[in-house]
Amino acid sequence: MVSAVGTLVVSYAMDWSLLRLTIVLMDRKPRRWRLGLGAVVGTLPTLWVLLQQNLYAVPWELLILWPLGMLWLAVPRFPWRLWARAYLIFAGVTVLAGGIALVILTWLGQWLPGIPHWLLLGLSVPAVLWGMGHLIPRPRMRQYLGQAQKGEVSVTLNGSTLTLPCLWDSGNQMRDPVLRRPVIVMEISQAIEWLPPEVLAWVTACASGRQDPVPSKWQGRLGTVFYQSIGGTGILPVVALEEAKGQFQGRWYRLQPVALAFTPQSVSSDHSYRALVSPDCIITINQEGVGA
């Protein structure tokens, strides 16, 4: 009886941890009650095997498709185009959990002979999986999965506000060299009618390689920032903003204080966004606890 209950407990803990890690890797917010529901469904094949006392009581075809039902319960609004990716990630972390369990039984089992194997696995493997989900760098993982976060950015200069579609780009690590503020990169073509004439003239000259003097009214607010990308290196004109807001995952956040850099090139090949905004504008400055 203890062995059967322990097996079910380990199965539930494993399924809960695997679902959570999969959802985190897919950049979705896991909900505990849905994770619990999916994990309960995940224990049903184990329960059937125990009742039948037959390791092969559940057809292998059903076992292969079973994680899809677990994921559907854990994340009901998952986009259909991501189901295959989620399934492959779940399968991958399942194999990883099996390797972790083997290492634990091989090494810790010798050092802790008094602890039942089911209890050892039920405590250690989920803890390792939870730690992995907690420590994984989500910005990089989103880039690997091709899940670029798009939104909007609203910038204010000299009392005038401009709102443009943007990409939350974790690769944008530029900082204002003086104040160390995060830098938003915007296409100059989108700011021609928005910038004050004297600022536009200075920005255009700087972008073309000329070193025109900074207008006296804008001393201390105009400058340059060095950038390095796959395409090369260079210098962009930059201006300190009065205020900035960004729409990230459906919510608007204040990004102040930030600086705005201008590039003569298009930042998007399909023109679906016109500015690059670092998630650090939210994380570092306002401590909102969110990130891309």
From TrEMBL:
Positions of transmembrane segments: 6-26, 33-51, 57-75, 87-109, 115-136
Keyword Membrane: yes
InterPro entries (UniProt xref): SpoIIGA
The keyword Chaperone is annotated on this UniProt entry: no
Organism from which the protein derives: Sulfobacillus thermotolerans
Name this protein carries in UniProt: Sporulation sigma-E factor-processing peptidase
Keywords: Membrane, Transmembrane, Transmembrane helix
